[in-house]
Design a protein that fits this description.
By secondary structure, this protein is of the alpha/beta class. The protein is 33% helix and 19% strand.
Length: 390
């Protein structure tokens, strides 16, 4: 029977500050602990798998006999952003962080960007995406200038009203920025942020966001695809990996659509990896400090887990993890430097296996490659021998 590994990345669902969190001003961050203890969401399936049994968990829910394997992983790569986290999950460890621009981008780059796009620009500062369109949206409507901004992450973001700048033009502008942002300016992602509305108070971002990532090094996606197996990407996974190593994709937007697309993809006939990003915990709730919404999004994922489980074959694996933290109870609106949880379930794996604290996110990719019988020529140590039934 064709074997699938299903990876659900719960975007930003960290499980406590890493030992080096002081370098990122994130001491005390604990996304899962703070959300669960504040709102007490119902997460029976994750708890049954062993979420509350993970070493250092600060929330109740430990069970006497978890149905899966459980643990957490530390990040080797410097940073706390989406690209760095996903790349390390996929086996690529960075030695240098992507550059950030707390004082905005250099004038000479912006002048070249403006020349090539044919539009002016406004903004050029770190900002919340929803706040900056409220601040500058009416000026953008009046002038046609692109709203450019960044954050604590390595991103160059372009916001534009869809009536003023058609989405395809906005994507073209992002491709121009991606081409120009090289060398010391090579940010992890250029992000298109289309919005709608005619005046402040009515502006709303649309679902046609798109990310233009830096080109990743070799990852598990390449190794799996090169072996002749499928790498099926759901949500923004294809963008995070610049489409490299992706054989099939569905750019669904938002957790409900991504969960629906993932369940449909699971039913298709192939062997390989089903790689899913569930973005709402980060984009909609974490950055906006919406603790209640964050908890509801976790509950939504939890409710869908039995459907994935029931459809799994005898050797399939289901892995739940994250890419960084974004503690909505913590100071600021930025990502937080945290451990990520690892929960693994399958009909062919042992119950109640404590994976402990893995030294790198790349142990996840090593395990996936091991399960799919693909040689691992990159980073990480597989825990597949620990969990597979004899």
């Amino acid at each position: 029977m064709k074997k699938k590994v299903i990876v659900l990345v719960l975007d930003s669902v960290g499980i406590g500050a890493l030992p080096d969190a002081n370098l990122y001003d994130d001491v005390g961050a604990d996304t899962l602990g703070h959300v669960i203890n504040a709102v007490h969401p119902s997460l029976p399936n994750m708890m049954a798998m062993g979420l509350g049994n993970i070493e250092g968990a600060t929330f109740p829910g430990a069970v006497s006999m978890p149905t899966g394997a459980y643990g957490k992983a530390a990040e080797v790569s410097p940073g706390k952003d989406t690209t760095t986290g996903h790349w390390e999950i996929a086996g690529a460890q960075l030695t240098q962080p992507f550059p950030t621009f707390p004082n905005g981008f250099p004038k000479d780059f912006l002048e070249e960007f403006s020349k090539e796009t044919g539009r002016g620009y406004i903004g050029n500062k770190p900002a919340s995406g929803t706040a900056i369109i409220e601040e500058l949206g009416e000026q953008h409507l009046a002038t046609g200038d692109l709203i450019v901004y960044t954050s604590a992450d390595s991103v160059f973001q372009i916001a534009a009203n869809e009536r003023i700048v058609p989405v395809e033009e906005l994507y073209r502008d992002c491709e121009i920025a991606r081409k120009l942002l090289k060398g010391p300016l090579e940010v992890g992602r250029v992000i298109a942020r289309p919005f709608e509305g005619e005046r402040a108070g009515e502006f709303k971002r649309t679902s046609r966001r798109r990310d233009f990532s830096a080109m990743p090094p070799v990852t598990m996606c390449d190794l799996i695809a090169n072996s002749g197996k499928t790498v099926y990407a759901i949500g923004k996974i294809e963008d995070i990996f610049a489409h490299k190593g992706i054989t099939v994709s569905n750019h669904a937007a938002g957790n409900p659509a991504c969960l629906e697309a993932a369940l449909a993809a699971q039913a298709e006939d192939y062997e390989g990896l089903l790689f899913v990003n569930l973005v709402d915990t980060d984009m909609i709730y974490g950055h906006r400090r919406d603790v209640e919404g964050y908890a509801r999004a976790l509950e939504e994922v939890d409710r869908n887990l039995p459907t994935f489980m029931e459809a799994m074959g005898p050797e399939d694996l289901l892995i739940l993890t994250a890419d960084h933290g974004c503690d909505p109870t913590y100071k600021g609106t930025d990502h937080t430097r945290e451990y990520i949880p690892i929960l693994v379930w399958g009909k062919g794996i042992k119950e109640n296996v404590n994976l402990g604290i893995r030294p790198t996110f790349a142990d996840i990719s090593a395990t996936i490659l091991d399960a799919l019988d693909v040689e691992n020529t990159i980073h990480g140590t597989s825990f597949y021998p620990l969990i597979r039934k004899a």
